[in-house]
Design brief:
There is one protein chain. The protein has helices spanning 31-41, 55-61, 78-86, 104-110, 163-175, 182-191, 212-221, and strands at 2-7, 47-51, 66-69, 93-97, 100-102, 117-122, 132-135, 141-145, 153-161, 196-200, 206-208. The longest helix is centred in the last third of the chain and has 13 residues, at 163-175. 30% of the residues lie in helices and 24% in strands. It has 7 helices and 11 strands. The chain is globular and about 45 Å long. Strands 1, 2, 3, 4, 6, 7, 8, 9 and 10 form a 9-stranded mixed beta sheet that branches.
C-alpha cells in the first residue's frame, strides 16, 4: 500500500504566503508534518506528496518521502493532482488532502479494513462548501459532491482505492475537467459499478482546513501531538 498526500494547491481561501499544509498547530507541528508522522508511526513507509505551489518549502521540510509535481497546480484541482501521483502505480492507494487534521485513531482503524474501497465520512449537517454524500440501499456511496441534496454527512478527504480498481479510477481522473475535485471521478466509477464504502469516523476528531474559521477550530482542537 502507498499513501498519497495532496499538497499542490495555492490554498487561496486561507490566504497564506506559504502552502496551507505548512500551517503550524499550537504544539509546534505542521498539518503536513502531523500527517506524515502518523502514517509512519502506523507502518506506512511509502508516502508520496503531490506538490506545486512553493514546492521547495515542503520538500525541504520533508526530505524522507517521495514527491510528484503537478506543473499545472495553479489551473487544476485535486483530480489532476491525484492523477499525477497514481498514473504509474499498481497498488492499494490511501490518499488524503494535505489540509486535513485528524486523530491518529482514524488511520489506525482504516488500515485494518480489508478489501473495500472507502471514503471516510462524518455524519453531520453540512454547508455548501463541504463535499457531501448519500448511500444506496446496499449502504455504499451513491453520490459524492458539493451539490448533493439530502446529504447524510461530509466526506472528510481521507480515502482508499484498491489495486484492482486503480486503473479504472485513473482513467476516470483523466476524464475529469481540470477544475474537478477527485470526488468527480469517484462518482464516475460508481456509475460503472465500482463499490465505495463510507467509513464513519464521526467519533473521532477530524477537521479539513478550508477557511479561517476551520483553522481556528483546528488550533483549538488539536493542542497536543497525542490527540
Amino acid at each position: 500500500m502507498k499513501a498519497i498526500i495532496l499538497a499542490a494547491g495555492i490554498g487561496s481561501r486561507l490566504s497564506r504566503p506559504f502552502p496551507k499544509s505548512l500551517s503550524v498547530l499550537p504544539y509546534g507541528e505542521t498539518i503536513l508534518g502531523r500527517q506524515v508522522r502518523i502514517l509512519k508511526d502506523l507502518g506506512v513507509t511509502e508516502i508520496i506528496i503531490v506538490v506545486g505551489f512553493k514546492m521547495t518549502l515542503i520538500m525541504e521540510n520533508f526530505p524522507n518521502v517521495y514527491y510528484k509535481y503537478n506543473p499545472n497546480y495553479y489551473i487544476t484541482n485535486t483530480s489532476k493532482s491525484l492523477l499525477c501521483a497514481i498514473e504509474d502505480l499498481d497498488d492499494d492507494i490511501l490518499w488524503m488532502n494535505g489540509d486535513v487534521v485528524f486523530d491518529k485513531a482514524i488511520i489506525r482503524e482504516i488500515l485494518s479494513i480489508k478489501d473495500d474501497n472507502f471514503v471516510c465520512v462524518d455524519r453531520k449537517s453540512c454547508g455548501e462548501e463541504e463535499v457531501k454524500y448519500t448511500r444506496n440501499e446496499q449502504g455504499y456511496i451513491n453520490e459524492i459532491s458539493k451539490e448533493v441534496l439530502n446529504a447524510e454527512g461530509e466526506a472528510v478527504g481521507i480515502n482508499m482505492i484498491r489495486k484492482r480498481d486503480l486503473k479504472t479510477y485513473a482513467e476516470a481522473l483523466r476524464k475529469c475537467d481540470d477544475n474537478d475535485y477527485f470526488e468527480k471521478a469517484i462518482e464516475m466509477i460508481i456509475q460503472d459499478g465500482v463499490q465505495i464504502k463510507p467509513v464513519d469516523i464521526s467519533d473521532h476528531k477530524c477537521i479539513e482546513v478550508d477557511f479561517e474559521e476551520d483553522w481556528v477550530s483546528a488550533q483549538a482542537t488539536f493542542t497536543t501531538a497525542g490527540q
